[in-house]
Every structure is written in structure tokens, then in C-alpha cells.
Design goal:
There is one protein chain. About 40% of the residues lie in helices and about 20% in strands. The protein has helices spanning about 1-15, 25-35, 40-45, 50-80, 130-150, 170-175; strands at about 90-95, 105-110, 110-115, 155-165, 190-195, 205-210. Helix 2 packs across helix 4 (about 50-80) and helix 5 runs parallel beside helix 6. The longest helix has 29 residues, at about 50-80. The two termini are about 35 Å apart. The relative contact order is 0.12.
Amino acid sequence: MALLAFVLRSVAASWREPISCSPSLHTIAQSGLDRAPRIRNIHLIASAPAGARQTGRRRATTMHRTTKILAVIAALGALPLAPASARPADPVFTPSELPYPFSAAVQVGDILYLSGDIGVTDDGQSLVPGGIEPETRRMFERIGATLAGHGLGFDDLFKCTVMLADMAEWPAFNAIYREHFEAGRYPARSAMGVNGLALGARVEMECWAWNPQGKP
């Protein structure tokens, strides 16, 4: 509708004053004119009486302006139309079953962001006993359950951030970590030693998963 209104205003203006347009539209219009039939009535105007010549000039000017407008319309019609921009979907929050103020995961666009997880018991009040290895296995169980709740698995993870209470336990953590991924398809990962994790945990891991919302 906006284009139609512009065209109608342009046609009306062409009967009153010269056309003014941006350089890009001028180029489009000129390209259209180069392909439009030339007005070949100059010899008729020259041989006509003065009044007729003046009328002929006005008609030629009007035809010339109208041809410019039609060339612009034709060029605009050939341009690809941009798709209507849709409002992005609101984030979708997955509540955590633990008694703490955070979500288990949040879907934003095509990415599922998982909160950092540790090797806690079902009630979230304490850690599983045994240190780095039991805690790591329990942590992966919890992350796997969150992924499964969204129809995903570990293969859908593409970014992980690992926090270790003691970097000396990094090899033990890695041995369990690699069990959950296909070789050659490990997520991008950062690992760091930190001073203090929730409940005194030995390890915590935060993950991002690819979860396209347009998938069938």
C-alpha cells in the first residue's frame, strides 16, 4: 500500500513539476528509460504552427515524465521483497526442582542455555559422597535429564564451561567427560580452577545446547 501511494503521488506530481529522486532511483529510472521507446515526433513538432508546437512539447514532456515513472515502477517491481520481520519468541524458562533461585534451563531462540550443575543428591541439600569421580558422574546424570526433558542429548551440546575446585583433578574429570561424547565431536569448552563452588562441590559444568525451534 505504501508503494502504491508513492506511485500515485509521483504520477500526480509529474503533471506539475520535474521529478526529483535519489541517485539510486535516478539510476533505476534511467536504466528503464534506456529500454523504453524513444519519442520520435520531433520533426512533426518542428513543422507544426507555434500553438501546436507548444502543445506538442507539453505532451512530449508529459510522456517523458510518465515514462520515467513507469520505468521506476518496473525497476521497483523487479527488486526482491524483504520478508516481514517477525518478533523473536520470548525466552522459555524451565524451572529447577532444586530449592534455589535459578532455572534449570532457558530457551532463547535456537539455543538452550543450561544452568551450571553439580553432583547433588535428589533433594539438592548435599553432594553425593566420594569426591570428584562420583560427583562428575552425578553431574552428568543431572545434565542428561535436563537435556532429555527438551528432547535432546549430549550430542546436541556445543559449548561447555567447567569449573574445578582443584585443577589437579582435571585428568579424572576428563576421563568421565569423554565417555559422554563422540570422539571428534566434543563441544567447545573452557575449564578453570576456582576458589569455592556451591555446597563445596569439586566440579560444576554449564552447557549450551543447539535446539532449533523450526525443526520438524
